[in-house]
Structure formats: structure tokens, C-alpha cells
């Protein structure tokens, strides 16, 4: 079930993995023009087809295990593993065990430099 986008300062509950219904699901947890945070539920043996993110992507396995294919390599992500992919890198995901994955998409900047706080 798709959750509505959160507002700044609003708590969002990230669901723990429960018995899957054999369907992959995407739940948008928060979305702004600069950042989108999604939870993917990927049952064992199911695929998330190839996507090409329009920004940097951070994939964090919360539960279970997935195989992520990107950059010409397979990455085995288990609970606690995190992987950073760059702008326009095609990737696909396959569930090895029933898994919950947090995906954060950071939009490509369109001009000017961005400085981190404290730099």
C-alpha cells in the first residue's frame, strides 16, 4: 500500500517485513523536488526491473537479502549493507530472501555548486 508523502517534521513509520504476498511493492515515504525516499519490498525470487536513476542513489538493505546488478557487477546486499550509485547508472534488484530495501534518490543538481555545512 502506497503511503502519502510526509511533510517536513512529520514522523514516518518504515514497516518491518511481514509475510510477503509474492509481489514486489514500492512505498514512497517522502518526496520533495530534491530527494525521494522509498521502501521496496522484494520477495525472494522476484525482480525489480532495470531502472536508471536521475540522480545519485543510496540503497540500504533493511531486512533480508537482495542481489543488485550495477556497474557491470553483482552486489550481495544483506541486512545493514548500503550501496551508493551515481547519476544515470542503470541497476536492477533480485530478491534472494524476502527483503526490505530503503532507496534514497538525490536529484541531480542543475547549476551552481553545493557546499556542505562546515566546509
Explained architecture:
By secondary structure, the protein is an all-beta fold. 0% of the residues lie in helices and 55% in strands. Strands 1, 2, 3, 4, 5, 6 and 7 form a seven-stranded antiparallel beta sheet that branches. β4 (55-70) and β5 (73-78) form a beta hairpin. The N and C termini lie far apart (41 Å).
Low-confidence stretches: 114-119
> Could you state the order of secondary-structure elements as H and E?
EEEEEEE
Share of β-strand residues = over 45%
For the secondary structure, the number of strands is: 7
Largest sheet: 7 strands, antiparallel
Radius of gyration computed on alpha carbons: 15 Å
Shape: globular
Number of contiguous helices: 0
Structural class: mainly beta
Query: Whole-number average pLDDT?
Result: 83
What is the straight-line distance between the termini?
A: 41 Å
Tell me the helix content: under 10%
Protein topology:
Blueprint: E1 25-31, E2 35-42, E3 47-52, E4 55-70, E5 73-78, E6 82-85, E7 90-107
Antiparallel strand pairs: 1-2, 2-7, 3-7, 4-5, 4-6, 4-7
Key attributes of the depicted protein:
119 residues, mainly beta, 7-stranded antiparallel beta sheet, 0% helix, globular, disordered C terminus
At a glance:
The chain contains no helices and 7 strands.
